[in-house]
Design goal:
Layout (H helix, E strand, L loop, with lengths): L8 E14 L2 E7 L1 H6 L5 E6 L9 E9 L4 E7 L3 H7 L6 E8 L12 E6 L4 H13 L3 E7 L16 E7 L6 E2 L3 H10 L6 E5 L2 H13 L4 E4 L15 E4 L8 E4 H4 L2 E3 L12 H25 L1
Parallel strand pairs: 7-8, 7-11, 8-9, 9-10, 11-12
Antiparallel strand pairs: 1-2, 1-6, 2-5, 3-4, 3-6, 4-5, 12-15, 13-14
Length: about 300
């Protein structure tokens, strides 16, 4: 994707502000100069509350937004486990151990393109950041933002803007389109004529797999942000290994999502239950076609 990786900085990051969005959702803003200055949409930080050894591991969180002028960045956090609950319990002025920015970001949409962003639950975080970057670049796109209920879409009021139109979907029909987030996405694609938009997805694995399959069926480019378990964020623990396969690879390869991702070309990902990537399937079909033609010609000659 042509990205020059910034060197991550490991430092204590004071909490600047904590905003409750209702339920277990919070926006946390920390002071961390390098992340605020260098981060790109799709990158993440490894962070944990306090300075003690407990809990032992930092947790990865996608960056929601940055403010270089004030050297701050924000995270969208759902307090669901010990690490995230400890972060959300911090008071302004208290510190977190933070390493960032980390990972490979999304490709920046260019003016004149039609980026279609697909988010599930708190997977929406990088797309708030991307909207800011798109606005600076003069690009516009659509965000399909899905959850089980309206309560799972707490960022909705702060997402729409000059660069982004938001189309919500809920499985219970309490807000927007009734059904999974891929329903309005497919409806939109069915209405397009002659354009070839690029898809960007972040959220639950099943949702991203569905977006990848949709992109394969329609021959559309797509990027996905994978979210396997991560322990270190720098490729040492090998806890976040995923399978990827380019068109020319006979077998899938194992790659660390923290260093070679988390953003990958969707066509290169070998999803659970699949034997190969869609890029490899397409290449194999192209390789098989000439052999099939040659075989039929040979059979005709013998006849």
């Amino acid at each position: 994707m042509g990205y020059d990786r910034a060197m991550p900085a490991n430092r204590l990051a004071p909490l600047v502000s904590r905003e409750s969005l209702g339920g277990s959702f919070f926006v946390l803003t920390f002071a961390h100069e390098e992340t605020a200055r260098e981060a790109r949409p799709g990158q993440f930080v490894m962070i944990k509350a306090g300075t003690s050894a407990e809990p032992p591991l930092r947790r990865p969180f996608s960056i929601l937004s940055v403010e270089p002028a004030s050297s701050t960045f924000s995270l969208f956090v759902k307090a669901i486990g010990p690490g995230s609950r400890a972060l959300c319990a911090l008071e302004p002025g208290e510190v977190a151990q933070c390493l960032g920015p980390l990972g490979r970001p999304f490709t920046t949409p260019v003016p004149g393109s039609e980026p279609l962003l697909v988010a599930g639950g708190y997977g929406v975080a990088p797309f708030r950041f991307m909207a800011d970057e798109m606005q600076r670049e003069g690009a516009r796109g659509l965000l399909f933002y899905g959850g089980r209920t309206a309560a799972d879409l707490p960022l909705l009021p702060r997402l729409s803007g000059p660069a982004l139109t938001v189309l919500p979907a809920t499985e219970d029909g309490s807000l927007g389109t009734c059904g999974r987030v891929t329903v309005p996405l497919e409806n939109h694609l069915d209405r397009l004529s002659g354009s070839r938009p690029k898809l960007f997805a972040c959220g639950p694995e099943a949702m991203m797999h569905a977006v990848a399959r949709l992109a394969e069926r329609r021959s559309l480019p797509a990027e996905v942000s994978l979210d396997p378990w991560m322990g270190c964020g720098v490729g040492t623990c090998l806890g976040c290994v995923v399978r990827v396969q380019s068109a020319g690879d006979e077998r899938p390869k194992l790659r660390c999502a923290c260093t070679e991702g988390p953003v990958f070309d969707a066509s290169r990902v070998v999803w659970p239950g699949d034997d190969c990537s869609s890029a490899r399937r397409a290449a194999a079909a192209c390789e098989e076609a000439p052999r099939a033609v040659s075989g039929s010609e040979a059979a005709g000659a013998r006849g």
